[in-house]
Amino acid sequence: METRRIFLQKASLSAMALTVPTLTPFTAMADSISEFTRDEKTLRVAIMGLGSYGTRVAEAIQTCKRVKLVGVISGTPSKVLTWREKYGIPEKNCYNYENFDAIKDNPDIDAVYVITPNALHKDQVIRVAKAGKHAISEKPMAVNAADGQAMVDACNAAGVHLLIGYRMHFEPNTLEAIRMRKSGELGDIRFFQGLSGFTIGDPTQWRLNPELSGGGAMMDIGIYSINGARYMVGEEPIWVTAQEVKTNPEKFKEGIDETITFQLGFPSGVIASCLSTYNMNNLDRFYLNGSKGWVEMQPSTGYGPIKGMTHKGPLDEPIVTHQTVQMDEMAAIIFDGKKPEVPVDGEEGVKDMKIIDAIFKAVKTGEKVTLSLT
Ligand code: NDP
């Protein structure tokens, strides 16, 4: 229930919204943020890494009910200036990669959303945890399971949440497919297919540099089929086999996978057959087959709208901005202890990293690799 204090703050904010001119002076916008920060149930977030996805998340936060963008951590001063102007971020909430440990002394920031290249997540999340702030990490949480576990341990030791940016776990059509499977409408689940891929451009980008990406398509896009296989089937895989094809070794160097097909085996006998690639366009499809019905989603993990068909007709759930819903739900997880239908905690991220480790091992050895995720 809203306290009187929060109600009054909101009322004064609304009044301010009526009186502030359209071209809000910079200092007035900064003031409006410090006003907002008095609402204890609003998750006040700083974004680390103001790149393409960070920009999308920042925009999505603007329509959140319980989340406010209040800070930035960036290595690019010109971006910081633009973001300050655009979102009314006060200077005292702006950091760079050298000085962001000082965020521990900033009571106006609750959480840091790490949206940098994959290989940087581990150290950055651990520093955020040591600063006593909740950490949200983009996927993949790390570049292997050991690093992911180190992040989980650091956040546990600091008593802060670690959440992974699995936006599909809050997407309504995805949740309806999961509901159908759980309710038995699909009968016994027998098979899942996940196809995840796109054609990657610029050969100089960090995604094609193993030092920063930790891998190629698998870390970036194949992870959607891995994670999707788990939430669509509703079990944890117990073995994996995998095969790699590389048509352009110059672009996809050692340590950067171009195309990998992989198979997952589940305890009930369900099998999943998946494809991860940086060399095919329009690959974004899930198919779940059970003894009584089926669900097909295409696109299945893109920004939306997600489109789905089932044995009984189309999936027709509301179209949402994934990142807006994700952030509001994360505020509820942090403040209210809400348990999402599919977890987004660090342990969930480590499971995907263990599967990726096993896929890479299976590619290398040609062997079936057994998994123990439970
Ligand atoms: P970008 O390259 O667009 O942005 C990354 C940003 O990280 C840069 O702009 C930069 O911001 C910062 N950065 C810090 N150190 C480096 C470095 N050494 N090299 C390059 N950039 C650096 O990448 P994306 O935004 O596309 O991806 C970032 C993360 O988000 C990845 O982990 C990716 O997997 C994930 N992602 C998740 C998506 C989802 O749907 N959940 C979709 C897209 C990406 P600055 O200049 O401010 O320092």
Index terms:
binds NADPH dihydro-nicotinamide-adenine-dinucleotide phosphate, 15 strands, single chain, 6-stranded parallel sheet, 374 residues, alpha/beta, 11 helices, 9-stranded mixed sheet
Description of the molecule:
This protein is α/β, with parallel strands linked by helices. Helices cover 37% and strands 20% of the residues. The protein contains eleven helices and 15 strands. A nine-stranded mixed beta sheet has the order 14-13-12-11-7-10-9-8-15. A six-stranded parallel beta sheet has the order 3-2-1-4-5-6, with helices on both faces. Mean pLDDT is 91; it is low at 1-40. It binds NADPH dihydro-nicotinamide-adenine-dinucleotide phosphate. NADPH dihydro-nicotinamide-adenine-dinucleotide phosphate (NDP) is lined by residues 49-54, 74-76, 79, 115-118, 120, 138-139, 165, 167, 206, 212, 220.
How much of the polypeptide forms β-strand, as a percent range?
A: 15-25%
- Total strand count, please? 15
* Average pLDDT reading: 91
End-to-end span in angstroms? 37 Å
Q: Enumerate the distinct ligands.
A: NADPH dihydro-nicotinamide-adenine-dinucleotide phosphate
Low-confidence stretches: 1-40
Strand order of the largest sheet: 14-13-12-11-7-10-9-8-15
Helix percentage:
25-40%
- Dominant shape: globular
* Count of helical regions: 11
Radius of gyration: 21 Å
Helices and strands in order, then pairings?
Layout: H1 4-19, H2 26-36, E1 43-48, H3 52-61, E2 67-73, H4 77-87, E3 94-95, E4 111-114, H5 121-130, E5 134-137, H6 145-158, E6 162-164, H7 172-183, E7 189-197, H8 210-213, H9 217-233, E8 239-245, E9 259-265, E10 271-277, E11 283-290, E12 294-297, E13 308-310, E14 313-315, H10 322-336, H11 346-365, E15 369-370
Parallel strand pairs: 1-2, 1-4, 2-3, 4-5, 5-6, 7-10
Antiparallel strand pairs: 7-11, 8-9, 8-15, 9-10, 11-12, 12-13, 13-14
Helix pairs in contact: 3-10, 5-6, 6-11
This protein binds NADPH dihydro-nicotinamide-adenine-dinucleotide phosphate.
NADPH dihydro-nicotinamide-adenine-dinucleotide phosphate binds near residues 49, 53, 115, 165 and 220.
